[in-house]
Amino acid sequence: MMDPQGKSGSTGTLMIMGMMILVFYFFMIRPQAKKAKTQKKYISDLQKGDKVVTIAGIHGVINKVNDDNTVNLETSPGSYMKIEKSAISMEWSAALNKPVVEEKK
After folding, report:
1. Does residue 105 lie in a domain region?
2. Strand pairing class (79-84; 51-54)
3. DSSP 3-state of 8
4. Neighbours of 46 (CB within 10 A)
5. Do residues 54 and 95 share a domain?
6. For residues 60 and 52, is the Cβ–Cβ distance under 8 A?
7. What contacts 24+ positions apart, CB below 8 Å, involve 64-73?
8. Tens of pLDDT along the chain (105 residues)?
9. Domain count within the chain
10. Structural domain harbouring 70
């Protein structure tokens, strides 16, 4: 004969594991997927004149968008770099206008 407590114990464990998976999904996986989708759309919408920051921290203005998934980035007047679109991290103005977080005392 099976012990009724053994059944409910395994059911409770399964419910807790299921809840942990749901919490993990909603707090970790879903926001990351949403951010990746936004970044992909931003990369595909790049155009000449956009001010950007690369993942290496290089600031510049897009001079030309190439068909081979690269852009020509003007880092200073007359100085150009050819970089992959995927190396662009964010818009320059977004990087400069981050909200200031005040410390609570």
Report:
1. no
2. unpaired
3. helix
4. 15
5. yes
6. yes
7. 71/46
8. 455 554 557 888 999 999 999 998 888 888 899 988 988 998 888 899 999 999 999 999 999 999 999 999 999 999 999 999 999 988 877 555 566 566 666
9. 2
10. 48-99
